[in-house]
Amino acid sequence: MPLTQPAPLLAIQASLAATPWADEPLVPMEDSGLAHAHLRLGETGWLLRIPKQSQMGLEPEAHLAYESACFSRAGPSGVTPAMAKSLPPDTALPRGALVVRAIDGRSATLPDDLPTLMRSLAAIHRLPLPAAAERAPLLAPHDPLASMYHEVLDQARYLADAGLAPEAEQGIRRELARFSASLETTQRPEQRLITFDSHPGNFLIDVDGQAWMVDLEKARYSYPGFDLAHATLYTSTTWDINSHAVLDNDAILAAYATWEREIGETGRSQRPWHLPLRRAMWLWSVTWCAKWQVTSGAPPLRNARGQDWSRQHNSEALNAHVQERVAHYLSPPVVRRMGKEFRSLAAAFADGLDTETQLTDDLE
């Protein structure tokens, strides 16, 4: 039942009975995301972040613990909202909820706001890396590149049933083969805390021009290059209606250069990985599109557990937008566009991994 209906709001209000927000009116916000609904808690400056599902595939309690850890680990960066409380699952909130600081700001305007987005990502990436034993519950695979490959491969199972044109499917599978071959190198980039969901629509720009990263459900210890790619890929910058923009290569390269300067001494050493991780992040995004295309028509899961991409969780407007974007990103012209972009950026990242040029020659 939509959150705008009186009965659910009254039930959710009861879930806040033992909190400082017990008597605050609940103000529904625009349904703009596939993973959460949001309610403002009156004029307190806080909001209720209510999971529609767990993109991480977790049980409700484990999901809340994971999301709470995302906010607490990223908090010292100064560019993510504070979290005040975690509300356990109950009848009104079967997946629980988080109370987080509401950020008053506007959507990112690209490419003008790319420097501030990159500075905020660098602030997160500069956070000290915890000892391996202290990284849980966040994902912290021993080999994030191999882990990403298997995550992409799992989503790629849906390509055959997603109704793709043969040219598009073949282009995606060629990139998958390239990704597989890249695992043979023994080199790996530096690991840091990353957001793994840094598309521009997840940032708000405040009156001082600072970019706040407001969606931290999927943070993990991995490679910053995944965030840099997700912030500048065509499939990211054209996803959100309010921050929609098509970046040219100059804007993309300028964004990477800003991050390299902001991150400090290690920035330059990451350059060999910019293109391989960009290609991998695009594969993650486009195979997710295939997965959504195939699975979103299912009814909601009855037990409110794990991943659940059912369209019935969303408004008609949101579903229409996602469907249009998904079909666009899976189309032959966009797959061709991405291949062309990767080839054109290869020259700018010419001092990349020695294997990259060889892999491109072998697999084109």
UniProtKB/TrEMBL annotation:
Gene3D superfamilies: 3.90.1200.10. Keywords: Transferase. InterPro entries: Aminoglycoside_PTrfase, Kinase-like_dom_sf. GO terms for molecular function: transferase activity. It comes from the Bacteria. The keyword Transferase applies. Pfam families: APH. Residues 44-248 form the Aminoglycoside phosphotransferase domain. This is Aminoglycoside phosphotransferase family protein. It comes from Billgrantia montanilacus.
